[in-house]
Design goal:
The protein is an alpha+beta fold and 97 residues long. Helices cover 18% and strands 37% of the residues. The chain has 2 helices and 5 strands. Strand 3 and strand 4 form a beta hairpin. The radius of gyration is 14 Å and the shape is globular. The structure holds zinc ion. Zinc ion (ZN) binds next to helix 1.
Length: 97
């Protein structure tokens, strides 16, 4: 393999988002359209090095500046309280829920 995403500069954030069902998006996929209606607190890994635009991107505030970053959804929380507890236990400060 050689190239690992863990080697890329990244950060963990928590946001309430509508996790996409797949890469097609709500215009091309019925399940994505359904997914877009649901807002879920998620642990998200964002990549800080720009990278390839072929992946889903989201706007994230990093150090006070809004940047468009690639992201992966690492974990979905059932409740906001669960997300807050996770952030506290894991030292994640960039949360907006
Ligand atoms: Zn889909």
């Amino acid at each position: 393999m050689g190239f690992s995403e863990d080697d890329r500069p990244h950060d963990y954030i928590i946001r309430i988002i509508s996790p996409p069902h797949c890469a097609r998006g709500s215009k091309g996929c019925e399940k994505c359209a359904e997914a877009a209606e649901v807002q879920i607190p998620c642990l998200i890994r964002v990549f800080l090095d720009g990278g390839m635009v072929a992946r889903p991107m989201m706007e994230v505030e990093v150090d006070g500046a809004l940047r468009l970053l690639e992201f992966d959804i690492i974990k979905r929380f059932t409740t906001v309280d669960e997300a807050k507890a996770y952030a506290k236990d894991n030292g994640i400060s960039n949360i907006r829920i």
